[in-house]
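Try it yourself: sequence plus inosine-5'-diphosphate, in.
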Amino acid sequence: MAEKQQTLVLLKPDALQRDLLGEIIRRFEMKGLKIVGLKFIRLTDEMLDEHYSHLTAKPFFASLKQFMMQTPVVGMVLEGFDAVSEIRKVVGSTNPREADAGTIRADFSMNVPSNLIHASDSPESAVTEVKRFFSDAELFDYEKITDRFIFGEGI
Ligand code: IDP
Ligand code: MG
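Structure, out:
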């Protein structure tokens, strides 16, 4: 049963440096996901310790954090039915060279950590991650006239 969800996306420093912010946002828009939050975030060491806590034991952890702090990142909250899994599908596998063609990571990147995007990996982590980076006042509820054409009458 489809569930309306919000999910967190970060456009990483390589997306900013390579002028891919617009292209990536365009792909999310084309998929029909609604942008309900959007801002620049300057990530800190503490934020990344929390955000990547599942990777602290990895040998690449310190360099991953350095990579993520090189420039501000673009934080987005996207909303839609099954938004968490649908976004992961559009983003593609962690390693861009194993990602399916047509996904953003496969189409525009070649390596880790520079795989352009973070996207929440489960409904539970999406709830935690949206709260980690966005306050309630930074999230916007609004109607789009295209919702009915994209989601059908089930909205
Ligand atoms: P995900 O971003 O697809 O959810 P995670 O396993 O949560 O993948 O890893 C978080 C991020 O850490 C990746 O997107 C990538 O930027 C980086 N990363 C993952 N594995 C490696 C690695 O082996 N070397 C360097 N960086 C890595
Ligand atoms: Mg992850």
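One thing you can check immediately is this: The longest helix spans residues 21-31.
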